[in-house]
Batch of 4 targets.
Target 1
Amino acid sequence: MTHTETLTRYVANFVDELVHTGLTDVVLSPGSRSTPLSMTFAEHEDVHHWIHVDERSAAFFALGIAKEQQRPVALVCTSGTAAANYYPAIVEAFYSRVPLIVLTADRPHELRNVGAPQAIDQIHMFGQYVKWFEEMALPESSEQMLRYVRSKAARAFHTALDHNAGPVHLNFPFRSPLIPDFTLDHLWGQRTERSFHYAYKGERKLQHEAVEEIKQRVEKHQKGLIVCGPQTDPGLPEAVTQLARYLQLPVLADPLSQVRAGQHEKDHVIEAYDAILKSPGVREQFVPDFIIRFGAMPVSKPYWLMLQDHPEIEQYVVESYEGFRDPSGNEASLILADGKQFCETWVNHLESSFFDVGWLKKWQEANQKAKAILTEVEGHNLSEGHVFTEILKSFSEKGTLFVGNSMPIRDLDTFMLTTPKSVRTMANRGANGIDGVVSSALGAAAHGEDVTLVLGDLSFFHDLNGLFAAKQFGLNLRIVVINNEGGGIFSFLPQAEHKDHFEPLFGTPLSLDFSKVIEMYGGSFTQVNSRNEFQELTSSLVETKGLSVIEVKTDREENATWHRQKWKQIEQALLEG
């Protein structure tokens, strides 16, 4: 058998098994050494291939698809620093538990460490940030090796998705010539009836006796909180709110918890808890005896400060699998069980506990006061916080809101009120970076989801290359760029007091005209200066196709002052109340 036939059958069996196991999307970046993988993926009619020339943006684009689809997405690149450009997205995928299958092409072993071009050490190059690494064997076409390559494909898919999802990395050494032959008979090889490693899966359940024990421990107290941090299980919001109603406890709902939006009951949901807890004096009035938490640690810093100040609070952290996400450093009981099943077991099989109803009412009244202050209409000026209020109003019955880090995610936390609309919230909160946000949002929009992205000017600038996907594939994305000429979040930190160094080191104003970039990528660009203009524009753009960018110009110092005034008003209302 010739080299070309061996190469073709080896790669074709690998690709076909990935597709057979459930892969639907692959993101390819151009390169020579990756030719066998790229051409074979493009040839397979049952996988959607996306081509992105910038590997860093390509990886975040794949991350966005995987977030929205909640299934593994494959990445393919050539050898050398092309693979290194995947690193930020792989780190984000690892910490945010997003499944990626990273396929890097490599030089064969005889061309490594001898000065050959485009040859770097790619063995375990992503270190601890992948769940599994495999250096693939050089292509062979024996029956044993075709079973081997199918086995690795199936294992890669299942490992990426299993337990806490995350990235896996397979490194493929290829010798020249690299062009596959798609005229071969039985090109895709021999599939088994099911995938090579078919997985039967079940829920991770906690026995009734264990839930009963937790119940007995917490019912010794009167003041409890249910907290739901960032999470993606669509069934958890209803289960959590049912548990809250059953126990008559408040639910502190992070904006990425999916609890603030949807058709489930929200009478116990406290969405303004971050604003309530801003004041140390108010915070002391809302210290619980115990907390039952679902999802990752909430975005809210005041919540974290409350935990820091009160290590005596009993914590019960529900995680579906291994992993501990609690940077407070306090003692906590880890509950390894499916969150939805845990709630349903408590509600359906245990007698109700009786906690202090006055505690619940206290939170609900504070929540109403805080919301009234946050939603006050103050003339025609458009604040950064009210950007979210208007965007959420403009949504139809459903859609996805993708949010950048730094100030946008914090303003979402403050200004996203409960709604019956099916609004799905997303952000790259694994590593909390500003890189790749545009690409991730476009990935989330790749399959036709109605997506609006809100981010700052620095995050936008950091991933302008990501806009290529919008033009290349004709994707629909509405982007709101909050342009405060730099790093707005630093205006809230102690660095702002050091005027001599603040602007060059932290403020970092860009002074760029983004309209030129949007024109280059075939999008529409509008700058707004008032709340009325923004209301009209966001409403009209809901059904608009293609790339639409709205720039909202704000002042960093005015924004910081406005936020502090709101927090002071809330503090006064709650202390006087």
Note: The mean pLDDT is 91.
Target 2
Amino acid sequence: MNQIIVKFSKTILVKSGVDVYNMSWTPGNSFAVLESIMILSVVACDLDVYLVHRNGDRTLLCMVTCPSIHMAEQVYNQEPHGPGSCDLTRSTLSFVRTIDLQFVHRKASRIKTQSNLSILWDEININFETFLFWSIPGKTSCSSSMKDNNYSCISNHSQCMVPPYLPGYVCRCSRGFEGNPYLLDGCSPDIDNGYSPRPRKENCSGRCGTINVEFPFGLEEACSARKSFQLKCSSHSTKPPILRLNPAIEVTYINVSDGLLGIKYDSTLGGMFINSHVNSVGTPSESQEPKLYVDPLESASVRWAVANLTCQDARDNTSGYACVSTDSSCPGVISSIEGYVGYRCVCLPGFEGNPYIPDGCIDIDDCAQTPGLCKGICQNTIGNYSCTKCPDHTEYDITKMQCTPKAKQNLFLGIIIGLSTGFGLLLLSLSAVLLVRRWKRDAEKKLRRKYFRMNQGLLLEQLISSDENASEKTKIFSLEELSKATNNFDTARILGHGGHGTVYKGILSNQHVVAIKKSKFVRKGEISDFVNEVAILSQINHRNIVKLFGCCLETEVPLLVYDFISNGSLFDVLHPADSSNIVLACELHQKLQVLCIISTLRHQYQSSIGM
């Protein structure tokens, strides 16, 4: 790749009264700095180190703290990069043209004491190491750069590429070639013979913790197909084993059939460079192996190839061909950035397993794994399946996804349909009954309201409300109250019959016994007089006159409610013998007496209310 590693040191003198110090570094117009692998070492005391961005925002990189002068000097003399220094590696993918750092003294914790080691107190010593990516300045596209006389990709089998982080272009060798594309004949054929289709060691360990390590990967030397596939299982007494690709990258799973490797980066070591090894000081170093991992840019998984060869070239080299399983094939692995990476192996459709070992691809029972493939009988074949129709007298049941007898199925469907229909009819009938009952109740309420208005109920309410005595003694009963009091006008409650109606015995909700007169008819013209007389009669309180409590106007003919006399009628008291003439005379005499009293009281009542 077009990259170089740069290292430099700088010392900033600490001035009295100054707490903020800045450092800026720009490598040049043709270079970009990768912040992802920026290793910074700051030797000082009581400093906050910030990375300043182009928009003015700051990111705290580290804090350098010295708890005491004596301890800081003692530790520094033993280990210059111990306490009193700041070491870090940023892992964020970011290319910048300038690095701006800011160092801020913390006043609250700064120690003002004489020190024999002035390097910690009078200076800020900075050691900086990072990657520089470069490009050839010029045109912004490869097509225009190729027309330039100073076009740099002069080697045969070289090609131009525009990097995303710098203006200009870079050169690289074409697929299947390696070398220096900036020299004549610098790109030579790249024959990758590093893959070994069989482990050279027997009884290789194949598990690290919960992860299966399948070939072509391995945990020991001579157990993997190539050096870049050798993993390390680091076990600790207090932690579960950790599988690593290199010290900077942890492997979380291996999927051989799909060609995927689950990874997790260690940000302190710059794990982005998955195709590189990491040396003892944490700096990535290029491996002699070809770059077979597709750089995921900090993704959770990476794709990989087994060799940097085309499938055709790999098949021609039969001794090193990786796809050794009979039912396997060879697809290519292509990166959107780097182009063709190499090839890998995969089991043919209808097979699964490990294509990198002999007979590793095993036939899949498609019928068992995917029910419902056939609308009939499914039969598995080697690498495939076949479908046949259901036998006679059977048909395919989509709910059970199998062939079932027609009669049994029809009976089952018939039961379901019958139950559903019966339940539906029952629900419909109940709904109809409820609707009819509700309609009847509403009709009865409307009819009662009609009779109440027709029988001058509003006038009676007005008369009652305008007279305090009337409101205390007169009550307008509802039809529901009187029906409940007479057990729905039960014939057993009848006290007697007359020419104008029937009298029922009733018990009100307050347990008061009353006589309810239900007349047969009433003249429409007499309704107003009837209402006035009810208001007057309800006020009469005489020992020889039956007490009138009120009336009900919610029927076509109003109902009158009297006090109940338990000793019989006036005729029963005066004349125990039966005589129709005496009865008629008594009734006539009683009626005349009552009418006289009514007329007198009515005249007085109308005069009092101004009628």
Note: The chain has five domains: 3-134, 142-189, 207-361, 367-446, 455-609.
Target 3
Amino acid sequence: MQVVGVRQVRHLGWTVLLCGSAVVAQPADPLPLTPLPQSIVRETGSFTISDGAIVGVVPGDAGATAAARVLAAHVKIERGLTLASRVGKGAITLVRDASVQGDEAYRLVVNGQGIRVSASGNRGLLYGAMTVAQLLSPDRGFGKPVKVPAVTIEDAPRFGWRGLMLDPVRHFQPIESIYAVVDQMASVKLNTLHLHLTDDQGWRFEVKRYPKLTEIGGWRTPPSTGGAPGAKVGGFYTQEQLKALVAYAAERGITIVPEIDLPGHAQALVAAYPEFGVFGDRPEVSHDWGVNPYLFDPGPKGVAFVKEVLDEVVAVFPGSYIHLGGDEAVKDQWERSPRVQAQIKALGLKDENQLQSWMIDEFGTYLASKGRRLIGWDEILEGGLPPSASVMSWRGEKGAVDAANQNHDVVLTPAPTLYLDSLQSDRSDEPPGRLSIQTLADVYKYEPMPAGIDAANAKHILGAQGNAWSEYLATPYQVQHMIFPRAAAIAEITWSAKEKRDFTSFLGRLDPQIQRWRRSGVEVADSAFAVGYHLEGTPGEALRANRVRVALATQAPYGTIRYTLDGKVPTAKSPAYKAPLSLKPGVTIQAAAFDAAGNTTARPRSFDSSRAALLTKTSSELVACPRGAFGLRVPLTSEATENAPVFNVNLFDTCSAYPAAPLDVAKSFTVDVARLARHYGLAHEARALRSHFNVTTHGELVISARCIAAAKDKTIKPIVVASFPLPDPKTAPTQFSFSGTLPAMAGDEDLCFQFTSPLSDPFYAVERATLRESAK
């Protein structure tokens, strides 16, 4: 008998794998369980589950019956076996046991007589059943009997809040896609789904007393890139749809926390009911991402309106928490309203932040009268934290520390680490999102218990969640790509003991979970396991030497990289990568990592070493100009789906650079340009926008050399290579090209592409910069 934790694993049969140039040891036979249970005791023997096996439950036990139903659904899809539920003992038995303490705790025993899950609570039975589902799948024997090794597992979560947030506001998601996420949250024991249901760009929750919230507020006009606006987009969920979703999630151990965002992010509300805004004007539902000025009315009329909305919210969502936002509420409208200023004075408050705290306390007290608890983003701390409020800390961890030390409950969700709309790699095939790259390893190493919290207040840390904001996630496919597999990392950091977490062990257990998700029809990003290529030296050095040196690596230390140079797809028998490859230009490298069983961990990626390819840089390979930094990766249009071009942009300065361009080799160039919508609500940050003097009506594309060096050293003068007037955005296509010749220079020089279009015009970006060795 042997106890197995993360580091305490079977000492026999270790397999050594190469990942890049690193040697990684992995256990040959780890249990395929994610998140890692608290205690695993391996024993001798096994039990076989075959098609038609019975899941036994106690008569009249609705929780056990539900767990058996969910177990059967997962095993059918993930392993291809049909399980039947029946009262009494079965090959798998789910039973109540008061000695297993905690609603989410369970005990699982596998021996020669069968598989037995014991728990005192419904969620414990469900999570034990999900561990059984993982033990049954997957391997290469889909549809065949499974031999489950003898084991005793004692398990319970570290934190009670293990969550994800979906944002169906910025891009409306069909209700069916939320069901799919719920299913796969349950598979890794996540238990909280936060739905961001209102914002400037839409109102998604049906309020029967105020139908215009969805009739008007549920639809927006996409932003224009210069031509005619497109048809309205949007949608909403009926209360009946949401009640059904709540019930479905509850059967899978998941509580849904709805968010009605107030007092800011309220433009859709004010568009529907201007009388609940501050000044009575009617804006359009916003199509701008970011921060907008519209707040709701904090007076008696507005407060009464919100309470009526909350009446309908609590009737649909029976969970303890109701989220009321409180984030990014710029107070300019309140500052400029004599009526609101009179209210602040009448209440004896200091300023607008205290008015927000007063308002939050009003709603917290109202929710408490209905047996509910208010939670909000950490901005609700700014005017003094109301006694009734809990805090969701997103601006780092300070809000969490401050709130916990004031005896308020806290959920950690700090940006950028747990913002799942952040990119997962710097490869050009990544979809749109925030350019703050948060890898699988970054999420896994996050510790939800922040430093600085007094030991006595640690109990106030409820847990953590990942947020998938949807400004750039237009489809369910894109949402899933950003959530999975990082959801498994969130599950493990919130469930498993801190001292037992180990990234290498996690990767070995994650691999089968990824296969389960894919068998369930879920899109799972392979960014952590995909081969990336790094050209050693500059393109110019490679071209001059007629020799290319390329290093290969994966983010995650898992698998053996194998490659080909003959145009064929790599297999498990292809050469293993050991050191950077030295090649003549013209060879295409294809590579993928393979696990111990010889299966690819990600689809193969390629590297074109031709001279033409070495001279070409896409948007994702350009860098920000010295006075700015790329912050977003955006699609061609706001509603673009999976296959649309994407562009790395700095919202505050439309300038990008081609570093170390070999101007002694290249003689001419072509720059492919895209015109994008300038749909960003920057609020007070708009002061940081950098304008440029335009000498033609719509501005120019100015290409200059030595621009980065000149920004660092004022004695160096940039050289203007070319300047092209930009066309009228009302009549020109959204994508076009400029070509020209390059001056003869001695070697590598940076090239900058600066757009000088007025700030009132659309936004421009370089899609691709192609240098050529011949003249035009």
Note: The longest strand covers residues 39-49.
Target 4
Amino acid sequence: MKRPRISFTTSTALALAGFTLLPMAQAVQAQQGPALEEVVVTGSHIRRKSQFDTPSPLSVVSRSDMMDQGASTVVDVIKNLPENSGAEFQVDNLNQPLTSGTSNINLRNLGLGSTLVMINGQRQTLSAVAATDGSSFVDTNSLVPFIALERIEVLKDGAAATYGSDAVAGVVNFLTRDDFEGLEIQAKYQSVDSGSHSDSELGVIWGGGNEATHLVLAASYFDRDPLQSNERKFTEGTALSGLGQPGTFLTSQGFQVDPACGVTGGFIRSNGFCGFDYSPYFDLSPEEQRWQVFGKVTHDFNETTTGKLEVSYSDTEVEVIASPSFPFATFFPTVPAHNPGNLWGEDVQFFGRVLGADAGPSLAVNEYETTRIAGSLDGSFSSGWYWTLNASYSEQEVFYDKGDVLEERAVAALEGRGGPNNNQYWNPLYDAKDDPAVIADMFGTTGLRGETSLYTVDAIVSGDLMEISSGTVQAAFGVHYRDEELSHDWSDDFNNRAFLNLFGGPDYSGSRDVYALFSEFNIPLSDTLEMQASARYEDYGSGLDSLDPKLALLWRPNDQWSVRGSVGTAFRAPSLFQTIATQATQANMYDPLTDSTVYRSVQTLGNPNLEPEEADVFNTGVTWEPSDGLEFSLDYWYFKYDDLIVKQIPDVVVAQEAADTLAGLSGTDAQRRVVRDPASNLITFVKTDFINASSAETDGLDMSWAYRFSPQDMGNFRFGGTWSWMNRYDLREGPNSKKVDAVGSRNKLNFARSMPEWQGNINLTWMQGSHSAAAYLRYTDSYVDDGNNTKIDSHSTLDLRYAYEFEELGSGSATVAVGAVNVTDEQPPTVVDLLGYDTKVHDPRGRMFYLNLSYTF
């Protein structure tokens, strides 16, 4: 679908006209009474009297909802949103090593980059690291202290017409406690029933001021003790490698295992290699510390003009363990006949790793520093129109360090030129008592220092445009500018591709400017029917631009019924990472030619010729409120997504290469992408690209209900639930590819992510006097692991919480809450893969108990 173009001259003229509105507004505004209590809600630039007076489906998680769930981090909340499917919210050493300590949102499973994340209505910078599949995302762990959150609004509708790129699947807006008064201190301790894992968090918030100025300050500290894979039985034997220590040697007589194999630290595999079980060397939940601070000041300059300034900072450090050392994967070195570990009297080839079980796990460090400053000015004209000027700057810096063996130094050590003085041997036989200095000399580090930044400016005017027979037409007009930057600086060893496993790649950096114009109209068609029409034009330069319209209707025939519907287009521009990066990752892949699962490096090159992703979006829904205590909502959603940007799946590339080879073909594209060791025919690494896949078409239903009732002398009850049903998710890898239905699949063999058909929860809360309690029953449907055609069972957990409030304790009030997560200690369903469970769906920690104390005065 070709995007309409607007001429540069017209765009520039409109932009300049928009930027003149602010000084005009300040010049002509006059003294007048306080403005009507109207607010800007997520999904619209027009002020409304009601937060829910909008034709787009909007769900809200309030602070009281978060407390009922026993949440103390953003992850505790967003991972349980039924519409959030396929996100990354916990560590996965092999499949997401660079992003440990981050979290993200994936509405409708349309991609980590297809949901726009905002703080108080303004964009936030992307994370300085991308997911292993190349997706860029906003790190929701680094936004603001959890104690500073007032609510989370989730707009479950395409919103490119309002907010531009990235708002394909919807918008998640994190809003802070700007009006908080007093002082509140919260402390929480949570621990698993079995194992060493625990979380400790301390948060404090203070708010105060006078009639003109209000200040809110908040800070928090989060500390996590790790849960390691050897503390859970379901991980046992799930990570088996044919490259270990003891290792395997290729001689003129064939493959020979280290004599110690089967005696200690290894076992003989069916392919004749000495295997290594590295299952015990991983984190299921890593060691983590996070500091966060937030401050916001609101000042009324006069009766018509208000200014706001907010500052936040987050510092996260994560230590992640893994196997003692990586296997040799990109190169299998020669052990010369004169090496003391050579038992065969001839040059042989070594297949294994430097360190084995006796060395214990290795360590990787991820550090993130995220800074944000945002300001706004709001005012009104004498005519009653409002004006707003917003500006923000946010950045994230990352440091990532992981060790790997240097090819040149390993070869030198095998030849007797190793160590700090270049005169020592490395003996590759097990338990060879090598000098530690020789081993240390063979290792280098990745030393990544990366940074992303985002600068934004918005100018918006809104108000009553005209009167028509059916009511008042409201409108909003605005201009937007943003500057995005990304840079990655790796160590020299990484740049020189000096490693035996991590492969490596160059440094890279880039930036771009984006300009946008947008408008929105709210038109009453009758006393019960209104229409919202909006459009946004964004220009990225170099011929990349987009015009996205949206039309929505809201019909309220009476106080009980509300019917809504919308249709529009959306787009997502290629991220800077996808256009300029050279991504080196590692992945497990099955090799049909050797009948083995191997862990190998994958190199993916950025593609500057990527087209933007485009989507047609449709939503319709109904809300029924037959009484003050009962509310039921049902929404149908549909997305047709074209030109999705994905990274080719290594398994698919390897499978095609094997099929071409078995068919007698030579020189095919797949064969060029799979590089093999000529002596052993083992894969050394795989080359993939970022590409525009053909399409994905998906639809489904969201359901929610809430029933409030108060039996005599029994307190106040609320019975509710939220559910999401995925009807279909039809995708194609390319124009001529076979259609794949991704619903109910783990999607290991395509670009989608784990996608259970049903997800949701049923909840019951109760309050009477100082007592309150809550119960959440959560359900995830069964689905199929397409990698091996096995079933992943459905999963249900029950969370319970009880709280008591001491209303008069000293000069304030205190609340004590106790609770349990996963009361019945349900283990994650079995997956035939590394760690034995699906890290994008299930929680490996089992039953957890917590104590939460808060004091307010």
Note: The chain has eleven helices and 46 strands.
